[in-house]
Every structure is written in C-alpha cells, then in structure tokens.
Design goal:
By secondary structure, the protein is an alpha+beta fold. It has one domain. It has one helix and five strands. The protein is globular, with a radius of gyration of 15 Å. Bound molecules: zinc ion (ZN). The site of zinc ion has 8 residues, from loops.
C-alpha cells in the first residue's frame, strides 16, 4: 500500500506544567503511554494517555484531543507491544 498523505508527527510535543512540582515540560511522543479502560456493557470504554513527570514522577494526563490521530495509533501499538512482552516474561 502507498501512503499518499500522512500527518507529520515528528515535531509533536505537548507543553504542560506539572501540577506536582511546577516544572514546565514538553512531553514527546515517546513519553506517552496508552491505557484502555473497558466500560461495562452499558457504558463505552475509554482511552487514557499518560506520561510521568521526569522530576517528581507525577502522573500527567494528556487530553486525547491534543494528540494527532496517527500518533494515538502509534502509541497504542507501542504500548500493546510492551504489555505483550511483559506477559511473556
Ligand atoms: Zn513534576
């Protein structure tokens, strides 16, 4: 398959001031982890994108709307791979 157009995410970053230590951070794609929460049958599940502050290890939640779709897919795939190898051990 040929890609005709794809959003360039190589310069993506999310600016965030950590609520735990007031450090201003630029979160990069590689820092982001994906978690999926399965809802019960009446409610849909939801996705959560998080990172850890490099200074205080506090959890940072990145709003889904701030992450380009293509990047979300990449992060999801990457996180899946990690969790698979975790279970293999
Ligand atoms: Zn912090």
């Amino acid at each position: 398959m040929k890609v005709i157009k794809k959003e360039d995410t190589s310069n993506w970053g999310y600016k965030h001031t950590c609520t735990g230590c007031d450090t201003e951070l630029l979160i990069e794609a590689k820092d982001v982890r994906h978690q999926r929460f399965d809802g019960d049958p009446r409610e849909p599940g939801y996705d959560k994108y998080t990172a850890s502050c490099c200074e205080c290890s506090g959890q940072i939640i990145i709003p889904e709307s701030k992450i380009p779709k293509i990047l979300r897919v990449e992060i999801q795939n990457r996180t899946k791979r990690y969790s698979t190898s975790y279970f293999d051990r």
